[in-house]
What we know:
- The chain is of the alpha/beta class and 338 residues long.
- The chain has helices at 41-47, 114-118, 121-133, 151-163, 176-182, 195-202, 218-225, 245-258, 264-270, 286-302, 318-326; strands spanning 2-6, 15-19, 29-38, 64-72, 84-88, 97-101, 105-107, 142-145, 166-170, 186-188, 208-213, 227-235, 273-276, 309-314, 333-337.
- Strands 3, 4, 5, 6, 7, 14 and 15 form a seven-stranded mixed beta sheet that branches. Strands 10-9-8-11-12-13 form a six-stranded parallel beta sheet, sandwiched between helices.
- The longest helix is centred in the C-terminal third of the chain and has 17 residues, at 286-302.
Amino acid sequence: MKQIYITGAGGPDKLKVRESEDPQPGKGELRVRVSASGINFADILARQGLYPDAPPLPCVVGYEFSGVVDAVGEGVDSGWIGEDVFGLTRFGGYSDVIVVPVDQVFEKPASLTHEQAAAIPVNYLTAWQLLVVMGALRPEESVLVHNAGGGVGLAAIDIASHIGATIYGTASSGKHEFLRKRGLHHAIDYRREDWAVELKNLTEGRGVELITDPLGGSHWKKSYKALRSTGRLGMFGISVATESGLFGKTRLLKILFGTPFFHPIFLMNENRGVFGVNMGHLWHEVHKIREWMAVLVQGVEQGWVRPHVDQTFSFEKAGEAHSYIEARKNIGKVVLVP
């Protein structure tokens, strides 16, 4: 099989393709010939040596895939063989062959390409947990989606639109037209204006009921202040730390020291809530994941889940794919194809 290894902490040049023997599925597992693998910010942090959950280097990362089952292990129905599937893997997704537990695999909707299917697991499950499971967003409420042009951002717009909420979003101006067509009601250019001031003006000083924030550090404090009474802040990343080299590590420390502390007494007095989301720490909750995915697959069939793939890159150009995301050029998902 062919895999993309992170050979050491550093820049995109640390991604190298290596060949090895195909893995064999064990009990309760199946093997997938991968057609597409999703890229996430966690992968970039891992490449920079800044992701604590990553395996020791050198390693193969990647949380999501889509492809065709070609073998099954003991206790797995042989009817899976030949099926188009997509799913989640605990690292190893940057491979053209992977072995995964059958409970982490789902039938691919016929209406989706493998590239589109690989754009669903991390982005849409994260957005579903942020907006529905923990954010409890209601039709009469409003949500601010930071990094609205990213993969989770587009998924959040799809879900919030389905709910019927009012949607605000931060993104560079070049992405605004696309985002409005996707369902964003109010686009804020965070590069040219203070998004908090603009949000305050747009909401007549009230703020919003829910904010999804993948940026981290002191930015969470700013987002918290932009909440309306009964508002909730959903935190799910530290994407501002994705700069390579020593500066990246120094910046991560600065971010950690700048992260606010939310005291319970203050939360009670202000009628606000904060919560965190990390899909990489939910492997023991496979039944929840399957319940959420069932709704999302139904959303594909009903037309309100619309995974958007911005670019695909070959395995050999994985470094270019990482650079493309770090430069914030993408709208939606970036996918690797063997």
